[in-house]
Every structure is written in C-alpha cells, then in structure tokens.
Amino acid sequence: MNTTCTIYTALQEFADAVTDKLTQITHGEPEEQLRAPFENFMGAVAGVLGWDVVCTGETPLPDRLGRPDYAVHLNSLLAGYVELKPAGTGATASRFAGHNRRQFNRFSAIPNILYTGGNEWALYRDGDLIDRVVRLTGDVASEGKRAVGPQDAHAHESLLRDFYIWKPFIPTDRAGRIDLPRLDALLAPLCRMLRDDVTDALKRPDSLLVQLM
Length: 213
What we know:
The structure is a single chain. The protein has helices at 3-22, 35-49, 98-107, 150-164, 180-202, 208-212, and strands at residues 53-57, 70-74, 77-84, 113-116, 120-125, 128-129, 134-135. Helix 1 packs antiparallel against helix 2 (35-49). The protein is an alpha+beta fold. It folds into 2 domains: 3-164, tt1808, chain A (Alpha-Beta Complex), CATH 3.90.1570; 180-212. It is built from 6 helices and 7 strands.
C-alpha cells in the first residue's frame, strides 16, 4: 500500500471537513470546528499505518489554562497530547502571545505534545520544537481539498511517526543507577501541573476530590 497517497487523501478529507464547518452561515468557536475533522484524520492515518489509536478528549479546567485538548493513546498506552488552535493562530510557539503564550509555558512541562491549527502542525517536547513546523500548502479555513498538496502527506506522515515513537525514559548515571537529581528535574514541571490541577479541584464544590473529603 502506498501510505503517502492514502494519507494525502485523509489530509484532503480533513481540510474539506474544516472548510465546510468554517464556511457555514452559523459560526461556532473556530477551535471547536477542528475537533471532529482532527479525530477522523487521526483515525484514518492509524488505519493506513496499522496502528490502534484512540484520541481521548480532555476536560478543561475552569480557573487556569486548562489541559491539552486530547490525550492520544497508541495500542492502549499514552503516546502524547494534542492541543488544537484556531487556523489563524497556527502552531509556531514563538508567535504565541497572551493566553496562548501562558498556556504554552504551562504545557512545556509535557514531554510530547502536538500543536495544530489545521494549517500548521508542530511537535514539542519539554517546550522544544522537534524538527520543524509543518505547513499545508493552502488554507483549510477556505480552500478545502485545494489546501493540501501532494508533498504535504509525506511531511505529516513523518511528523506523526515522530509523535508516536516517543517513549518515556528514566535518567541513569554511568553505573546504570537512577540519577535522582536529573529525575527530580524531569518530574518537577509535571508535579507543578498536578499541583495546580489539585488546587483548582479543591475550589470546586462539584469536583470528585472535594466530594471524597
């Protein structure tokens, strides 16, 4: 099977679906219009590559900067996270400002997260861009299938393979023992995120954590 050609078709269908949603008389939140097309695209790519992929929607937190939009599972194991942005926002972190910049700083604690606004796709690990930002040929907000060029399929396949190959690691010293200072440094940002989540939960009378107390 020519996976590139099939992923090309999946990308075209994704772009077509986003354009359909963004060009209706009734307008919704731009970011929300990417959700169903994104899930369908990820499912199509998984089928092409023979992967068992499930995208689980995350519940946003009311008081802070929220959680990423999706936790993505490969063969029932957590592979990473995905954050959706409106098409005009893109996925280039250096251009983020205001809320998006503060949110990116928070999500920099996540060791494997994919950002996309439909037109741009980028993979970050611990806040660092991996390889490059992948851009579609055109604009999914208005051009439908015409937004996708044949070369886009190869770039997206490579990006998604990089996203899925991530594996958590435990730092060790030369003797093969766990390097505790490096492990502490690795876990500290994630612990801060967890602390913030617990703090927010304690402020909400309807949270499960409060109900357990």
